[in-house]
Amino acid sequence: MEKLVLIKLGGSLITDKSKDRSPRPDMIAKMADEIIGIAGKFDGKMIVAHGAGSFAHRPADQYKVKDGIKGPLQIKGFPIVADRAIELNRIVIKNFLEMDIPAVSFSPESIIMSYDKKPESVFTDSLEHALNLGFLPVLYGDVVFDKKIGACIYSTEMVLGALAGKLSKKYEISFVYCTDTDGVYDLRRRTIPEINPKNIKEVEKFITGSKSTDVTGGMVHKVHESLEMAKLDMKTIIVNGNRVSELRNAVLGKEHHGTVISD
Length: 263
Known about the structure:
By secondary structure, the chain is α/β, with parallel strands linked by helices. The chain has helices spanning 11-14, 25-39, 53-62, 72-98, 108-111, 125-133, 156-167, 200-203, 218-230, 246-251, and strands at residues 2-9, 44-50, 103-105, 112-115, 118-122, 136-140, 142-146, 150-154, 171-179, 194-195, 236-240, 259-261.
């Protein structure tokens, strides 16, 4: 079975989450350079997705869209959040294209339908065709329509999880999350090398949500989504994208400084 690695570029990494709509072009270019290095050596395919960072989290919080459509405030807010998410995606795509990466954008809003925040249907035909042609699909944290609550926020981890569920019969899937920390820290800010169902209760004492506005739950959310994927025999590695070659090393199975989450 062919390998497929699902890579997340964290919103706190590629944007300044303390400033509204503030991308970090240098970091986006660094991530692009690492992806170029992976492409020449990795025996498999890649999908990239990025967080919403300083673009969509603030309006998502302002319009209270996390838990569905409850009235006029959310009707107004959902398209604004979606527009902000797309705005950052276009910046990422433009940077990738300038570095000759054949990146193509896929909107989660258009390919995922959920029911009570759980993926009910995921349309991947065009995405799989793009993969087979040699393109790099690039998705992002977004809003998606939901048959029970109208619509909801789908974090990047949830988007990648929905894709993994659909593609797992065709690919051997793993995840690498690039953040601005060396994986998951304990109370002394030392990296926890491995998280699994046996030590998660202890780990939960250490991890907290994002310090900046983050409607998707920060590190706690990353860890719990990763443990759900671990139940399906899909490993996740959380690394620091600021470190040189850290993403590349994690994907290629080399030594890294991050946290491995497995069953």
